Amino acid sequence: MNETALELQLFENLKPGLTSFCYRMLGSIADADDAVQETYIRVWKSWNSFKQESSYKTWFYRIATNICRDKLRQAKRRALPVDLSDSAASIIEPREVLPDSSWIWPAPDFAETPEDIFIRKDTLQLCFIALLQTLPLRQRAVFILKDVFEWSSKEIADSLGISPAAVNSTLQRARETLDRVKLRSNEFNMMDVEPDREMLSRYVEAFEQFDIHALVSLFHEEGCMSMPPFVMWVRGKDDLFKFFFAYTWALFRVSVFADYGEWRLSCLCPVRAE
């Protein structure tokens, strides 16, 4: 096998994990895809300079981490509408918007192995991605590689160019930071509950028939709805009913937070179901 073929095979084998890592780092699947593509370009350009002082995997992730750092240094922290402001005081037509680069966006299911599927279930919920964005860059990378990907401290040290002792101290600070952070979106998180397919079916039916009463009845009393890129979000059944009734167009692009789950309704695909 020639070097080019070996390079391509290694990259393809690592690509799902790299994409998953970059998405958690950046909070945007589009940015993650760009970062992974740039990783491949840098690997290709520097292939002959690889000294095999670490594994190919840690080398690829070191490059991907540096690319994510560069992107994050040039951007503001991504967030969810519920974490930026209080819910709407009155139900009016939403007008204030922020660019797509301001928001955390759902990721597709790019898991290809049972291990990846398990990781995705635990750590790809939007509220968890929002929490990650509050961490400093190095803490974020260490936390993801250790607590999500379950790498050893030695592997992380090789990937980030730091010592195993620095990995452990950074991980401790990251965990302490996450314990202190209180995001409103985390109130809607129930990680261990399986998706409720019957609830999804009822929601889709109410959505397609524009049955406002049936739609709102599926929300918890304090259920919430947000619609990036709009900053405005709505909380509580009464305000949800007013909003759905007054602005029928809003149904075409919503993300719904409720105790029953979170849905990307534009494609009728569950991001989280509870």
> Based on CA inertia axes, which overall geometry fits?
elongated
Please state roughly what percent of the residues sit in beta strands, choosing from under 5%, 5-15%, 15-25%, 25-35%, 35-45% or over 45%.
5-15%
User: Helices and strands: which structural class?
Assistant: alpha+beta
Task: Tell me how many strands there are.
Answer: 5
Largest sheet: 5 strands, antiparallel
Report helical residue fraction.
Answer: 40-55%
Strand order, main sheet: write it out. 2-1-3-4-5
**SSE pattern, N- to C-terminal:** HHHHHHHHHHEEHEEE
Secondary-structure blueprint:
Blueprint: H1 3-26, H2 29-46, H3 56-73, H4 114-123, H5 126-132, H6 137-148, H7 153-160, H8 164-180, H9 197-209, H10 212-217, E1 224-226, E2 233-235, H11 237-246, E3 255-258, E4 261-264, E5 269-273
Antiparallel strand pairs: 1-2, 1-3, 3-4, 4-5
Helix pairs in contact: 1-2, 1-3, 2-3, 3-7, 6-8, 7-8
Structure description:
By secondary structure, the chain is α+β, with helices and mostly antiparallel strands. Among the domains are: 1-75, RNA polymerase sigma factor, region 2, helix turn helix motif (Rna Polymerase Sigma Factor, Chain: A); 197-273, no CATH class. 52% of the residues lie in helices and 7% in strands. The chain is built from 11 helices and 5 strands; from the N terminus they run H-H-H-H-H-H-H-H-H-H-E-E-H-E-E-E. It has helices spanning 3-26, 29-46, 56-73, 114-123, 126-132, 137-148, 153-160, 164-180, 197-209, 212-217, 237-246; strands at 224-226, 233-235, 255-258, 261-264, 269-273. The protein has a 5-stranded antiparallel β-sheet, with helices on one face. Strand 4 and strand 5 (269-273) form a beta hairpin. Helix 1 (3-26) crosses helix 3 (56-73), helix 2 (29-46) packs across helix 3 (56-73) and helix 3 crosses helix 7 (153-160).
